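TL;DR need structure tokens for one chain.
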Amino acid sequence: MGSARHSLVRWVGQVRAWALWNVRGWSVWREPPRVAALVVLVVAADLASIVAAAVTVHIRPRELILAALLVASVVITVELTRKEGEQRGLVKDVYSAWGLPAAILLPPLFVLLMTMMYYSLNQLRIRQTAVHRRLFSGGAVGLAFAAAGVVFRALHSTVLTSTTGVVRNLVWCLILVVAVLVYQAINKSLVILAIKGSDPTADIRKGFFSREPLYNDLAEQCIGALVTYAVATNYFLIPVALPVVALLQRSLRHAQLLNASRTDAKTGLLNARAWEAEAEAQVARAVRARMALAVAVLDIDFFKQVNDTYGHLFGDEVLKEIAHCLPGVLREYDSAGRFGGEEFVLLLPHTRAVDAFRIADRVRDHISGLSLITSDGQAVEVTVSVGVAALDAGSTRELSELLAAADAALYRAKRDGRNQVQMISTTRGLSATGARATSSASTANAFGGTSAPPSVWDVVQERQRPRSSDGDGVRAGALPRR
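>> reply
TL;DR here they are.
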């Protein structure tokens, strides 16, 4: 009881921040202008729809019974979610299992109010987040369901009047599918607009249209359709559907937790264990198929001085910005992970040595051009050193050997001045060095001194001859042949 009272006090405090006399203090204005405008527009449209629906609604007793059963199911679902917690980021829930029956079988006012109630309960009982984001989510989902209900009733009144029997059942199902598609189109469009407005580099295809999210959407909408059909015949089947919906909720949460266990919490990239598992499978496949492959190790130059100078919070922001930019400069089938500390690792399948070097140098050059701003407005530049190890087609190497070679190449890049790429090939004795060219006589390293700029695209085929060992005991220039 005490925790509920404490949550209520916190929620009231956030509501006060949204009081009309404190408009300038609304957190929505801290969003990009386009996003702020979208949020205000969606919330205003939702409130206007509620008012318009309330003015025209005619409520019957049986509709109140159905609404009460659906609201009770929503409350139970929220409490079950509270027991497991809500993940940060884009969260997948099963609200459609209750929202779709409300949209199809009840006047629009009910689904609009129930949706706002659902997101208010999430804010109050599960996890506190920015109020304007909850309002936007509730507005987008509510408007989408209300539109789906309007479309269903319009088609139902015009198409079903002339059909009977099996044909009538088939047409009813097809109309329901159309209504679901209307809901999905409106809701996803609004959410995608908000995400792209906040982050133009966000991977929309992976977040919304890859296999896993599409499968989850399909499962959720199918459960919603089954509940809608069952409730259309007997309201009191809702309690029977509740365990099924709860099971789907648990399965979705399990999938989210499984994905979280593979992800580095700070950067969103694969963690070391998940990246190594994926890389080992790719290396074994490349060896069997006699295909080329490469791995790269990135290390932020003078990262300790970043933390000492600007604090660890800014150091975390540096890690996040670098991790955030990697998918944009890598290919779709490449894999990036955080190896620990300030080190990142890249897996480059189907990649020859020269191509791997070009990709690594493109990553290095992009990172050196990042605009990083401290809390006091100071612009900071960081650079990375990169070590690359290439597995040529037909070679037989293990991931541990490639990582050791990439680490040796990274050591050489650090030793020779940082902000450059060094590469080791497994068979051809290829030694490569690269860095961004500058017009000055020396290149300023981030948070360090200056060093003579290494040559750009200085790739030389060295003769196959014995080489001296680097300080870490791994021969520079080539791995020993098997």
